[in-house]
């Protein structure tokens, strides 16, 4: 046994081979030279005096580090990009890079949930950087103000009712507001008629996971009231509350005040609380005979019990009938795909994804979440788990039937699915380089995609759209062409995915009528008439091509108002013959690109 200068404790066998080393078992401290691989986590201790595991963890996933607080499911509150100057990412492993003059040590702080860098300077340890705090502010931490506490400029308060009533929450300790708030009346799923929502304008939550897209604030509230596990409805919208996204966390930690923004996201949070039941009025009548009360109570209980039995039997019959009808509809719908593998159950996929481990989560959106999985033969796959709230039978069948009947080199291959009771799972081939948006947005000039790769991606998607629109028996309109739905394999070949909104159009049809669907910023003008053709996909593809060339989103609400809309900038630059100014500086043939624009 020995310990080296880096602080790695090693044990050896009789052949002097290492059989165990402390660097393979990270705790709350990351030392220079220590690697962090997929599946490993830094776990902050409960406190500075209690070294047992606390609620905060940091794990590696998809080339970046993600900070979580334990909940069901765990809630994300921070991300560290692998491009940080103190670390390097090689062959699926993070390494903390040593400094020649000083040694940086990264420590995951337990009580603050910060990710801080310490450095020895002349024999004294001092904090030289706080990685997670960068660009986040002091309030964006799960327990900054404890449970239900609202953080504003470092000060903590409790939520107050719309009518100014402060009796829904109280401080855990008025001398220490940062410890958070507790409910005056505990929530109970047995009394949903007593649930109400406190409206907190310009208040947001550190984690925003949308479960409903293209919805207004009122629909967000109603969805939360109908779901007992929902503890708050967070509505994110732009200039108005008429359209936006909805998040419904099942556990509430600290909230934070936000400034109302023009041309950017704004938030309103609705906290679910339990009202006190109204006290029955005091009776002034003469007391009833005790025997009469007992007989009356017995008769009332008998009637209520018989009525409950009747309701239970009726409900069970209807539930059984609905289940049989639903199973029959699934069978009738899915029998159209005789060549599609169906020999997997939900338990198979729970095993393949390690029970949908959050460390294997590749991404997600309004439809649900995507997890990395491994089949019995070692094949890596991507398993899309559709949430019941965000995805119905119609969208699920649309994706299975569409992708199960078409095959193309630039279409993500559907390997199988599971439609077992409430489980709706789609299994696709694994695309190691993820979605296109991660490569063209938020990148530095050093790791920007070279023009040859960008050109190949554009051509790949164009070929797939030509196949869908011209070569299939029925023309297929995708209706959600965007960079997030274009996935890249290890050689940066692009493949189209996510056909849940797709529509089929017979060859003799010139258009189809449908409700407006898709993603803002990629919708063609013809959506205003609701009469859609394949040109809607072509327009969206043009927007993506422009984003690929320019290296930014079409709609960027974080930019100044005059530069939010990339298409408007394109029109102005075309008028003044300055299109070349839009092209991202990444080794591109400017003259050839300008001609293509």
UniProtKB/TrEMBL annotation:
Transmembrane region positions?
Answer: 291-313
Where ATP is bound, by residue?
A: 384
Q: Which PANTHER family match?
A: G-TYPE LECTIN S-RECEPTOR-LIKE SERINE/THREONINE-PROTEIN KINASE SD2-5 (PTHR47976), RECEPTOR-LIKE SERINE_THREONINE-PROTEIN KINASE (PTHR47976:SF30)
Domain Protein kinase span(s) in chain numbering? 356-597
Q: Does the keyword Transferase apply?
A: yes
Q: Which InterPro entries match?
A: Bulb-type_lectin_dom, Bulb-type_lectin_dom_sf, G-type_lectin_kinases/EP1-like, Kinase-like_dom_sf, Pan_app, Prot_kinase_dom, Protein_kinase_ATP_BS, Ser/Thr_kinase_AS
Keyword list (alphabetical) reads: ATP-binding, EGF-like domain, Glycoprotein, Kinase, Membrane, Nucleotide-binding, Signal, Transferase, Transmembrane, Transmembrane helix
Q: Which organism is it from?
A: Escallonia rubra
The organism's taxonomy opens as:
Eukaryota, Viridiplantae, Streptophyta, Embryophyta, Tracheophyta
Q: Name one GO molecular function term.
A: protein kinase activity
* Protein known as: Protein kinase domain-containing protein
Q: Does the keyword Membrane apply?
A: yes
């Amino acid at each position: 046994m020995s310990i080296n200068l880096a602080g790695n404790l090693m044990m050896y066998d009789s052949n002097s081979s290492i059989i165990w080393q402390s660097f393979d078992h990270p705790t709350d401290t990351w030392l220079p030279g220590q690697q962090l691989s997929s599946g490993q986590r830094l776990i902050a201790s409960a406190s500075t005096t209690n070294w047992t595991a606390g609620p905060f963890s940091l794990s590696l996933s998809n080339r970046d580090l993600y900070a979580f607080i334990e909940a069901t499911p765990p809630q994300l509150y921070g991300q560290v990009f692998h491009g940080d100057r103190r670390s390097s990412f090689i062959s699926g492993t993070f390494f903390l890079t040593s400094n020649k003059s000083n040694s940086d040590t990264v420590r995951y702080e337990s009580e603050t949930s910060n990710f801080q860098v310490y450095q020895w300077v002349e024999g004294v340890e001092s904090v030289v950087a706080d990685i997670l705090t960068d660009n986040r502010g002091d309030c964006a931490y799960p327990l900054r103000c404890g449970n239900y506490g609202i953080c504003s400029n470092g000060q903590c308060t409790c939520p107050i009712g719309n009518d100014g009533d402060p009796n829904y929450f109280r401080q855990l300790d008025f001398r220490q507001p940062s410890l958070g708030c507790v409910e005056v009346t505990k929530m109970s799923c047995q009394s949903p008629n007593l649930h109400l929502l406190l409206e907190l304008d310009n208040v947001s939550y550190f984690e925003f996971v949308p479960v409903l897209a293209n919805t207004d604030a009122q629909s967000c509230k109603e969805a939360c009231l109908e779901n007992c596990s929902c503890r708050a409805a967070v509505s994110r919208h732009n200039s108005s509350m008429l359209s936006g996204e909805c998040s419904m966390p099942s556990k509430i930690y600290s909230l934070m005040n936000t400034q109302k923004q023009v041309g950017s996201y704004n938030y309103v949070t609705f906290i679910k609380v339990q009202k006190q039941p109204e006290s029955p009025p005091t009776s002034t009548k003469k007391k009833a005979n005790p025997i009469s009360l007992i007989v009356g109570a017995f008769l009332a209980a008998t009637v209520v019990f018989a009525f409950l039995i009747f309701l239970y039997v009726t409900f069970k019959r209807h539930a059984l009938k609905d289940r049989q009808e639903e199973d029959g509809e699934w069978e009738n719908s899915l029998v159209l795909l005789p060549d599609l593998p169906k020999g997997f159950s939900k338990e198979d996929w729970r095993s393949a994804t390690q029970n949908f481990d959050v460390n294997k989560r590749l991404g997600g959106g309004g439809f649900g979440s995507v997890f990395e999985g491994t089949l019995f033969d070692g094949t890596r796959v991507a398993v899309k788990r559709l949430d019941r709230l965000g995805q119905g039978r119609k969208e699920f069948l649309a994706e299975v039937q569409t992708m199960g009947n078409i095959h193309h080199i630039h279409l993500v291959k559907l390997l199988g699915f599971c439609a077992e009771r409430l489980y709706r799972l789609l299994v696709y081939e694994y695309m190691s380089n993820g979605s296109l948006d991660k490569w063209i947005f938020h990148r530095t000039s050093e790791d920007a995609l070279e023009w040859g790769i960008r050109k190949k991606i554009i051509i790949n998607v164009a070929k797939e759209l030509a196949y869908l629109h011209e070569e299939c028996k029925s023309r297929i309109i995708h209706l959600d062409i965007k960079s997030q739905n274009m996935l890249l394999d290890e050689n940066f070949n692009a493949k189209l995915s996510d056909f849940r909104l797709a529509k089929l159009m017979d060859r003799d049809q010139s258009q189809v009528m449908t409700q407006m669907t898709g993603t803002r910023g990629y919708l063609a003008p013809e959506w205003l008439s609701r009469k859609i053709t394949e040109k809607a996909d072509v327009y969206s593809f043009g927007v993506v091509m422009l984003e690929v060339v320019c290296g930014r989103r079409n709609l960027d609400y974080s930019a100044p108002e005059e530069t939010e809309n990339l298409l408007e900038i394109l029109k102005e630059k075309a008028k003044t013959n300055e299109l070349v100014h839009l092209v991202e500086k990444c080794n591109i043939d400017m003259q050839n690109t300008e001609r293509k624009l």
